[in-house]
Fold this protein.
Amino acid sequence: MWFEAKRLLKLALGPVLMLTSAAAMAAGTEVSQVNMSPGVTEVGQQIYDLHMIILGICTIIGIGVFGVMFYSIIYHRKSRGFTPATFHESTKVEILWTVVPFIILIGMAVPATSTLVALYDVEDAELDVLITGYQWKWKYEYLDESGENVSFFSNLRTPQSEIYNAEEKGEHYLLEVDEPLVLPVDTKVRLLVTANDVLHSWWVPQLAVKKDAIPGFINETWTKATEPGIYRGQCAELCGKDHGFMPIVVNVVSKEEYAQWLDTKQAEAAEIKELMAKTFTLDEQMERGKAVYTQSCLACHGANGEGGVGTAIAGSPIATGELAGHLDVGINGVPGTAMQAFGGQLNDVDMAAVITYQRNAFNNNMGDLVQPIDVYNHKKGQ
Amino acid sequence: MSSSTSTDYEKYYVPEKSRLAICATIGLILSIYGAASIMNDMTFGDPSEPSSSWTIFLCGLFFFVATLFGWFRTTIRENIAGMNSAQLKKSYVLGMFWFIFSEVMFFFAFFGALFYVRNLVGPWLAGEGAGRMNFLLWEGFQYSWPMMETPQEAVGGAAAQPIANNGSFTSAETSMAFAEAHHWYAWLPMWNTIILLTSSVTCHIAHLGILDGNRKKFNIWLGLTVLLGIIFLCLQVAEYYEAYVHFGLTLNSGIYGSTFFMLTGFHGFHVLMGMTMLLIQWLRSVKGGHFTADDHFGFEASSWYWHFVDVVWVFLFLFIYIL
Amino acid sequence: MGDHHHGPAQGLSRWLFTTNHKDIGTMYLWFSFAMFLLGGFFAMIIRAELFQPGMQLVDPAFFNQMTTLHGLIMVFGAIMPSFVGLANWLIPMMIGAPDMALPRMNNWSFWILPPTFLLLASTLFMEGGAPAFGWTFYAPLSTTYAPPSVTFFIFSVHVLGLSSIMGSINIIATVMNMRAPGMTYMKMPLFVWTWLITAFLLVAVMPVLAGAVTMMLMDIHFGTSFFSAAGGGDPVLFQHVFWFFGHPEVYIIILPAFGVVSQIIPAFSRKPLFGYDSMVYATASIAFLSFIVWAHHMYTVGMPIAGELFFMYATMLIAVPTGVKVFNWITTMWRGALTFETPMLFCIGFLVLFTIGGFTGLMLSIAPADFQYHDSYFVVAHFHYVMVAGAVFSMTAAIYYWLPKWCGRMYNEAMGKTHFWISFIGFNVTFFPQHFVGLAGMPRRIPDYALQFTDFNMMSSIGAFIYGASQILFLYNVIATIVSGKPISDEKVWEGAEGLEWTVATPAPYHTFETPPKIDPAHAHS
Ligand code: HEA
Ligand code: HEA
Ligand code: CUA
Ligand SMILES: [Cu+2]
C-alpha cells in the first residue's frame, strides 16, 4: 500500500518537476524571463515587492493546505485499512479559519493601499506627454512649453516579411518602432493617455505603467525612470485586427541628450512648415505619396489599391471623381467606419502627396497634382 | 421507495410530451434572425438589393406569438380540466415572481447607466474630478442635466475635434424636464403618472371584485384598467411626437436623448405587454367566464406585472422628468 | 395519468417534444460536450498559431474571431449548459421530486440553445467575419468598429439570456416547491444548494447582460451615444454594465462545481461532509460579494482611487468564504477512508488546481499589482485554472460519478484514470507556463509575440494538444460505457455515496419518485 502511495506521489510530482526544470532551463538562456521585473522605477520596485510578498504568502498557505491534503491522501486511505472518523463539524476551527485568513488579508491590504496611493500621485510632474492610441499606432505630443510643436506618430517597424516568415526575425521582433518616445531620465513625467478610435492601453512593464486609452477621456498616470535605456511594451487592450502589432518603445536618455533631441525635432517641424510653401512636381509627389501610402493606408486599402478593410482605391469613384471629395475623405474620414480622419495625423505635405498618389497610381491616372497649399485651403474652407 | 403521506403531492402533473417548445423556438429564432437582418440592412445594407428580412421577421414573429397563444391556451385548459395540483399552481406563482424579478434587473441596468452618466461621466467630460484633463478634448463643454449640448456640439462638431467622434450627435433644443415644460396642466408626464397610478388602483379593485365573486365588478374595473393603459400609450406616443418634432429631442441628441428614449421606450413596451396581458384576462372573463374567487392566477400574474410596470414608472417620473 | 409513465417514446420525437427532466438533462449534457469540442477546436487553432512567433496558420483578424468565439462558446455553450444539464438530471432525484417544476418550459430552455449557437457560429461565414472583439466585447470596438455580424451576436446573447433565465426560474421553483416532505432546506444536498444560489445569480445578472447588449444595439443602429463621449456617454459605462454581469457570471460557473465536489469528496472519503452549514453560508457569501466586486476587471480604466480601493478590498474578501470551502473539503478527507476512483481523482485535481487559480485571483485583486498583470497571459492562466481545472474538472468528475447511475453500466476505470493523469499533466503543461509569459510581459489576445516568449508558448501549445487529445479518450470512454459498459444493478453504485439519487433503481428509471420518498433524518445533508 505504501508503494501505491509513493507511486501516486511520484506521478503527481512528475509534472511539477518537469515544469520547474523546464523553467530553469528556459531561464538559463536568459531571454525567457519567468517573473515580473521590478523595472527601472521606484513604483515598479514597490509593485514587485508587493507581488513577491503576496506570492510568498499564497505559497506558504498553499504548502500548508496541500500538505494536510497529501498527508490525508497518503495515510488515511481505505487500502491501508483506515476506518473513517465520523466528525462533521467544529465551530471552533471553523471560526479560526475564517478569522485567520481575514487577518492575513488585512496584512496584504496595507502595503497594497500605500502602493496604490503612490501610483495615483500625479502631482509635481516636470513634463507632460499626451499619448493617443490609434488603430494601430501611437501618437505622442509634448505639452511642455519647450516641447511645443513636437508631436509624432510611432509605428511598428518590423517588416511584413519577418512577420510572415519570409525573413529571419530580428532581435526586437514586434517590439520596434520607427520613432520611439524619448524621455529624460530622473524626471517625473506625467502621461496623459487617450485614444482616437477604440480602446487601447499603454503598457511598458519596465516603467510600471499600464493605463487604458479611452476615446474621449484623458487618463493621467506618471513615471520616473531612474536609468537610461530602451524600454519596450505593447498595447494591452484588444483594439482590433492589429492589436498585436502596436508596440511601444520608450527611449530614456540623459537630460542633455533629451534637450538635444527636442531641438532637432523642433527644427524638423520648422522644415515641414517651409515645405508647406513649396510647389512639388508630380514625380516628387508620387514618390513621397507612395511612402505615405505604404505607411498609413496600405494596411486597409492594399498594396495595389485593391481594398481590404477599406474599399478599393483602384477605380474608386472618389479617387477618380472630384478632387474636393477625395480630399474630404482623406482629411475627415468617413464617420462611423474604419476610415479615420487623417487630417490630424498627416501633415499637409504628406496629405497632398498621398492624395496625388491615390489619384494617379493603380491605373487611376487622373493626372492631378495636389500641392500642400491645396490641402491647407481645403481645411480652411470648411 | 417508500409510500407517501402527502396527498396533493401524488397528484403532481407531469405534462405529456409537447410540441410547444420546439414551435416557440422556431418562431423565436426566425424572428431574431429577421430582426437582426432588418437592422443590418438599415445600417450597412444596399437599398437597391431586395431583402427578405421583413418576411422572415414577420413570419417568425407570427409563428412565435401563435405558439405562445397556443401554449397559454393549453395551460388554461389543463387548469379548467382540474389537472393542476395546488403544488403546480405554486410553481406558476414562483415562476411569475422570479420572472418579474428578472425584469426588475433589466431596468436596474438602465437606471444604473443613467445614474452613472449623470453623476460621473457628465462632470468628468466637463473637466471635473477624475476627468480634469478632459478640457483638452472638449474645450468649452459645460455639463448640465438635462444635457442640452453634447460635447461634440460644444467644440463645434466632429471636424473641430476628430478624436473620439464615432458618430454624429446633435443637441436637443428643449428637454422633457419639469422646468422646461409648457404649462403644468399640459405636461403629459404628469398626466401619465396620474393615469398609471389610477390604473393600479382600478386593477386592485378588479382583484377585490373577483375575490368577492363579483364578476360584473371585475369586468368593469379590469376594462377600465385596460382603457387607462391604452390612454397612457397614446399619450406616450404624443409625447414622442412632441419630443421629435417640437423639442428637437431625438435618439441622436446625445446621452440625454439616449437615456430618455431607452428608459421610457422600454417602459412603454412593457406597458404594452402588460396591457395586452390584462386585455386577454378581460376577454377570458367576459367571453369565456373564466376565473373564480379562488382560482384566477392568470389575472393575478398579469396584475402583478401591471403593478411592477407602474412602480417602474414612478422611478422614471422621478429620475427622468423631475430630478 | 397518461401512458407517459411507462417509459420514453421512441424516435426523434422523444427528444424534440420531451418534458422529462432526464431526457432534457441528457440533451443539455451532449450539447454542451459538443460545444466543448467546438470551443476546444478553436482553442487548438489559437494554440497552433501561437506555437511559434510569426504568422503561420491564420490571419490576425481571424485569430481574434477564434479568441472571441472560443471564450463565448466555452462559457455560454459548454460550461453553463453542462451544469444546467447536471441540475436537470440530479435536482429532482436529489430532493425527491417527480420532475422539474415547469417541464415544458424546461424543454424550451434547452431547445433555444442549439439554433442560437448555430447562428453564432454561422457569423464566421458572414461578410466582415465573426465577432472579433473578445468575449468581453468592449465598446466601441464592438459598436462603431464592429463587423455587421455583431447584430446577430447581440440577438443571440438576448435569447441565450432568455434560456438561462427560464432555466434558473425552473430550478428555483423546483427547489423551493418540489422538495419531498421532510426535505428541509438544511437537509438538501449541497449540489442543490449551490444550484439554488447560482440560479438566483443568473436571474439577477442575465437581464443586466441583456441591457448591455441592448445599449450596444441602440448605439450601432439607432444613433444613441451610450458608449461615445462625443455625445456625452462613456465607453467605460459598457465595462461597468458588462462586469456587473460578468463577475457574478464566473461564480455562476464555479458554484455548481463546488456543489459537485461537495458531493463526491464525502463519498470517496466515506465520511460526511465537514461543516455543512458553513458551506451553505460560504456559498451565499460568495454570491453576495460577487455583486460588489465587478470593477476589479477595470483597475486600469482610470477610476478614482476611492473606487479602486473599495473594489480591491471587496474582492480580497472573497478569499475568506472560498477558503472556508477549501478547508472544509480537506477536513472532510482528513481521517476518512479514502479511495481514488476516477471521480475522486478529478476532485483532488480540482482542489489543488482551483486553489492555485484562486491564489492567482487574489494576486490579481491587488490593484497596484494588477496594473502589471492586467490583460497579460497571467490573467489567462488565472482564469483557465479556475475554469478548466475548476469547472471542467469537476464536471468531468460528475460525469464519471453519476454516469453509472444514469445508464446502469460501469465505465472503464483504467481508462478513466488514464484520462485523469493525461488531463492533469496536459493541463498544467498548457497553463502553468502562461503565468511566466504573463509576468514577463506578454499581452493576451495577440496572434503573434516577441521572441523571448517562444519557449513557454511552445510548451503551452504542446500541453494544449495533449490535454485536447485526452478529451477524445473521455468521449470514447463515455460512449463505450453507454453502449457496452459492464451492467450494474446495485442501487448504490459507490460504497460511500449518500443521497436520494442512490436509493432509486439503477439505471435510474425514466420516472423517479412518482410518490414522494420518505426522508430519513439520518440522510440529513449528504
Ligand atoms: C470560474 C471562474 C472564476 C473564479 C472562481 C475566479 C475567482 C477569482 N478571481 Fe477571477 N477571473 C475569471 C474567472 C474566475 N475567477 C475570468 C474568466 C477572468 C478574466 C475575464 C477576462 O478578462 O476575460 C478573471 C479575472 C480576474 C481579475 C481581473 C484580472 C485582470 O483582468 O486584470 C481579478 C482581479 O481581481 C480576479 C480575481 C479573482 C478572485 C479574487 C477570485 C476568488 O474567488 C478566488 C478565491 C480563492 C482563493 C483565494 C483560494 C482558496 C482560499 C484559501 C485556501 C484561503 C486562504 C487564502 C488566503 C487568505 C490568501 N479574476
Ligand atoms: C470555461 C471556459 C474555458 C475553457 C474550458 C477553455 C479551454 C481552453 N482554453 Fe480558453 N479561454 C476562455 C475560456 C475557456 N477556455 C476564455 C473566456 C478566454 C478569453 C477569451 C477572450 O480573450 O476574449 C480564453 C482564452 C484562451 C486563450 C488566450 C487567447 C488570447 O488571449 O488570444 C488561450 C490560449 O492559449 C486559451 C486556450 C485554451 C485551451 C488550450 C483550452 C483547452 O482546455 C481546451 C481543450 C479541449 C479540446 C481541445 C476539445 C476536445 C478535443 C477535440 C476537439 C479534438 C481535437 C483535438 C486535437 C486536434 C488535439 N484560451
Ligand atoms: Cu491598440 Cu491594442
Ligand atoms: Cu471577476
Summary: The CA atoms of residues 233 and 271 of chain B lie 8 Å apart. The first helix of chain B runs from residue 7 to 10. The mean pLDDT of chain B is 87. The pocket of copper (II) ion (ligand 4) is lined by residues C 247, 250, 296-297 (CB under 6 Å).
